[in-house]
Amino acid sequence: MSFKNKAVVIAGLVVMFWSLDFSLHAEVAANLSPKPVLEIMQRVADWQLAHPSKHKPTDWTQGAGDAGMMALAGISGDVKYRNAMLAMAENNHWQLGPKKFHADDHAVGQTYAELYFLYRDPKMIAPLRARFDSILTEPSKVESLAFNQPKGIAGENWSWCDSLFMAPPAWARLYYATGDEKYLNFMLKEWWRTTDYLYDKDEHLFFRDSTYFKKTEANGKKVFWGRGNGWVMGGLVRLLQYLPTNHPDRPRFEQLFKDMAAKILTCQQPDGLWRASLLDPASYPLKETSSSGFYTYALAWGVNQGLLDRKQFEPAVHKAWAALVGCVDADGKLTHVQPIGADPKHFDENGTEVYGVGAFLLAGSEVYRMGVLGKAKPRKISVFNPSSCWRESETVELNFLYVIAGTGFSTNNSWKIMDGISAWILDSQDYAFEPAQAKEKLLFQVDLAPGETRTFYIFEPSALPAVPPPALTTFARFVPERLDDFAWENDRIAFRMYGPALQKQDGDKTGSGVDVWCKHVRQPVINSMYARQTTYPKSDRRSNYHNDDGNAADNYRAGPNRGCGGAAIWADGKLRPSRCYQSWKLITSGPIRSEFELTYAAWDVNGQPVSEVKRVSLDRGSNLNRFECRYDTGNQPVTAAAGLVIHSAESMLAHQDRWFSLWEKFTEGDGPGHIPVGLVWPAATRGQFKEAEGHALVLAELKASEPFVYYAGAGWDRNGDFTNQIQWNNYLKRFAERLDQPLKVTVGN
Fold it and tell me: What CATH code would you report for 475-747?
């Protein structure tokens, strides 16, 4: 063959192999785009739901699987994954495993806490909190981390590397749910104690436990179990997600993560996966997907967070994910999962386990996030908490036009928010004050530790193949079937105000005060409450919505008084209130906020006609409404008042500089029980407390056309949110502090 012909053949081979390589890379790239990643995750999850594990529902295996299922619930548009976890927790009565100290029995608490972050129901973390409080008050008497102690004793400490996935993330989540540093401090102490004991600083890997310190593999190298170190890497991610960004221990954790990631990268095999033994893969040649799932999860998370170099680590993530997907059968079964064990083992390549599925779903969530971030070019939102108090479910309110400035995106789009620490798609809401106007506000909610800054990403909806439906919402509507009431609620509490039909019927027996409906449940109750009047016969106690039916009750009484936050004009030492509202306008309703306006007919105040437009808004997670009253007084200054009616001499009144509260017994329906009510005003309102005319009041001198702004609302001691007046007063105090130190928000590219 001539040199020329040889060159032609070689060139043809190069082109062929280049084309093959390009097509393979194109296929991998296509599988890494958000939609196919989500689809394969759902297929694997569906198989697992259809073939439930036989392990106990509070077992560590289930806890790991549940963690992955929750990661899927945070990005899927199908609510069944969230509902499956909710049903699991309800069936478990939110209990942990039976062994008090054993980390394995704490793993399921991670999912309970994540459900709590969605629903904010205290019962969801009550057993978790009780267990961890018990550990803190009566700690284990076992001091040693040595694993060769009598059966059961070694498990009372985090003495094996798997435990770093099982327990620490649960402790970190409970800390973030409560703001109580005792949970975080315990977790930090025990994490570093275990790390100092089991971590090999030369190899940057963890021994499974102390019995492996001197063992070696067939090739003479140390024994470092693939899934064991996968547990640690996964645990590191899930801990760092809830360790405040400004915590002094964070750099140390991040360095441990980066050191381990660098080592793990060198252990990846040519097919993209890892083996049961990290340093002797030749002795265990079978693919292993549970450890590979955790490594893919951790490395992808590190790249997404900017902790790992993208050029170095992202190709490894792509390769690993493609290999993991290759281990999924056509029906969605994940194979090549090493069964339960303490060390590397040979196993059936068709084997599966729920914890392997959990690792796969966790990995998929971060690969999904990688695809979305790479494709969508989102705007970055930084939110800073300047205060020394925790901010739970606090609404971030953005100017919509400012957010999309320079992007070329339409004001008609409803932008979506992705969490900065995970792939979770957060609930958001945008709206305009008038239907024909461009959108003006964009809302989402955050949790922030004192002094913490968190990052979020905003996308056009087209960047996401699906958006999870809200777990909770607010709701407001006009109620013509009940004498023109206007009713509104969120996940905590419900309210109503009275309209012209009731005024016509009852005359002076009603007015512009605010009525309260108490709720046991986090879901809407307004429609069911009104339906109770027609669904049941009059002889049935359930037809009387003053009685508690297990969901809600109207135990409060407003009548012609100010009720819970009604406003009035204060003149000549008297309250001069309006009558019932005359017209209404709904501005927006859920999921983050419901907002509406009520207009009142003019009334006489010492010969001067006064009219009012009242704007009311209630955010999810808040017990207090925001009221903004604008009075037309003919350009004359006026003194406005807002207050809480004092129903009886037994009502316990408390007040400080910027708030006051009442702890009251029920005045309607069945008891016993208490309804705490409160009122807070911002410093700009320049309010003064006064007790008069059977009310606790705030008085404010208003200039002509100056709005009167305050916050008022209620709770219930029957639903677990507030069980005594001290808790309620602390809530009002913190609310005032948050008004003084609003979140600082920065929008970047």
Answer: 2.70.98
